[in-house]
Design brief:
Elements (H helix, E strand, L loop, with lengths): L1 H23 L5 E14 L3 E2 L3 E5 L2 E11 L4 E10 L3 E5 L2 E5 L2 E12 L15 E14 L10 E14 L4 E14 L12 E18 L1
Antiparallel strand pairs: 1-4, 1-12, 2-3, 3-6, 4-5, 5-8, 6-7, 8-9, 9-10, 10-11, 11-12
């Protein structure tokens, strides 16, 4: 279990490092680094009995993110977020809330539907709309997830967002994100759980500082 947690943390670090280093070497026109708060709303149960059901609950989420635009249309984004999401354990018509948490990490390619400002002298539109897709991880922790495997799952990440300047070097963004993963615990063992497609949805607001602009 501890190895799985370390693997999730290492993978998340690599995702963010790759996002920051790859596009920002010579291609990036702007690089923004900041933090965000989000409303985390998981959809569906990770374990859907019988005889037991385990369903994550909505929670506030916080995290850090980085965005690098290589042109007015194409960019790269990386994000890591944490939420202390409790789990409703439903068994024999009884419901017990258990403490747990989730970490979401992703690396995405962004496409601006309306161009974004990428230079100090460029025309700055009031709002820029973009869509994105990429790969991510969803990592669960807490005593309620007392399984030998399956705590960290790869995910397809889709998002739509808008950004607007909030100052000479400050950018505000609002994003709707969906981490689509396949949850299964203790796969290949007699106690394996049934595989469930799961959606970790987050609506976030971020403020970033533009550390590089051309």
């Amino acid at each position: 279990m501890e190895w799985t947690k370390r693997r999730g943390r290492t993978a998340a670090t690599l995702i963010i490092a790759a996002t920051l280093l790859a596009p920002s070497t010579s291609l990036a026109q702007t690089v923004d680094i900041g933090g965000h708060v989000a409303f985390y709303n998981p959809l569906g149960s990770l374990i859907d009995g019988p005889p037991i059901e385990k369903r994550l609950q909505a929670a506030l989420m916080v995290g850090v993110d980085a965005v690098a635009w290589t042109s007015s249309r194409v960019g790269f984004a990386g994000k890591v977020a944490y939420a202390p999401s409790r789990v409703a354990v439903i068994q024999a018509r009884n419901v017990t809330d258990r403490d747990a948490s989730v970490i979401l990490a992703s690396a995405r390619v962004l496409f601006a539907v309306t161009p974004v400002a990428t230079g100090a002298g460029g025309v700055i539109p009031p709002w820029s709309v973009y869509v994105g897709a990429g790969a991510g991880l969803a990592s669960r922790s807490g005593g309620v997830w007392s399984y030998a495997s399956g705590l960290t799952s790869p995910a397809l990440v889709l998002n739509v967002g808008v950004q607007t300047p909030a100052g000479p070097r400050i950018v505000m963004r609002m994003d709707l994100e969906d981490y689509i993963s396949r949850a299964q615990f203790d796969a290949g063992t007699p106690g394996e759980t049934a595989a469930q497609r799961h959606h970790d949805v987050a609506i976030s607001v971020s403020l970033s500082y533009r550390v590089r602009r051309r």
